[in-house]
Amino acid sequence: MEKDINTIKNTLLVFLGIVFAYLLKELSNLFIPLALSFFVALLLYPVLKWFQQRRVPFPISLSLILSVVFYTINRVGDLIFQTFAQIINDQDRLLAQIQLRIEPWLRFAETRLRIDLDDYSGSFWELVNQYLSLNQLLLSSGTFAGFVKSVGTILFMTTLYSIVILGGILHYERYLNYVSGTEGGKLTQAFEQIKSSITTYIKVKFLISLSTGISFWLVCHFFGVDFALFWGFLAFLLNFIPTFGSIIATIPPVIMGWIQIPTLGTLLMLALILIGLQILLGNILDPMLMGNSLSINTVVVLLGLVTWTYLWGIVGTILAVPLLVLVKVVLQQVPDAQLLVRVMGGPPKKPLLHLPAQDEQPE
After folding, report:
1. FRET partner for 319 with CA separation of 20 to 30 A, picked from 27, 267, 302, 347?
2. Across the chain, where does the E strand assignment appear?
């Protein structure tokens, strides 16, 4: 009888998981801003707490925080716009430099293979010019405008949700004590542990990504690579994507360096420094600061990346690991889920929430 009940329970859990995944996919316009606002609120919570300890009224502290956030978003938007505008203005010069780099390889292949590549190379450059021409960019402006509109909608909804969450996060202890009926009970302790773990992950990941972005900017600027600030911002953003993000972030500045840097030795030095920074910050400092309790198994990370990218697109790719960490630290508080915690990676913590079995009597 008990075996049948467990089978039914597990079947229902699988069914509920499928339904929940379907809702996450279909209602992504609602869930994406909500998830983003949750992590944004946890990132800004220490700043808001600092203002509260100095008796700054909540409306004033929230206004100051939002002003800084909006100013940062505005500056990032200007950076992206100016970079693409400069690329459009300099496209003839960049294409000439690319052609200058490729021509020796074409001539080398021509002599080795004894094939006349002039006709093929001419068609290739015509195709490149066609896709990078101003007219082609204008034709794709409709798609770009739709993308900007979607991003603007997500940012607006995220801001609204963040204001609501920040307004209530300062008083969560009072609410949890009311729900549990005790002052500082196990429910409050469990939530505090979850909040502390997630906040630690967000702060460490943000600082590592920021350090990576600043380092990329300085290195690219030192080697004279164009758009150095943009490559730094791209490295900061892509560093939130585990495994693949750091690889993708290294490729564009190296390609730009290949276009601009005449000597092979200098180009190799640029590539090695950028790769070394990713290894130092991502593979050494990141695990040291995170600790074992927040580590995730590589296979679980890959499965999470595939799943969340399918559900939420590029936002899901960025939020995949934070969401996995959130699930893990929540499961650490559930006694029956310790096997899942071990599968996800790292040693399980002793749960604070002990759910008594049916044959146990509560004290």
Report:
1. 347
2. none
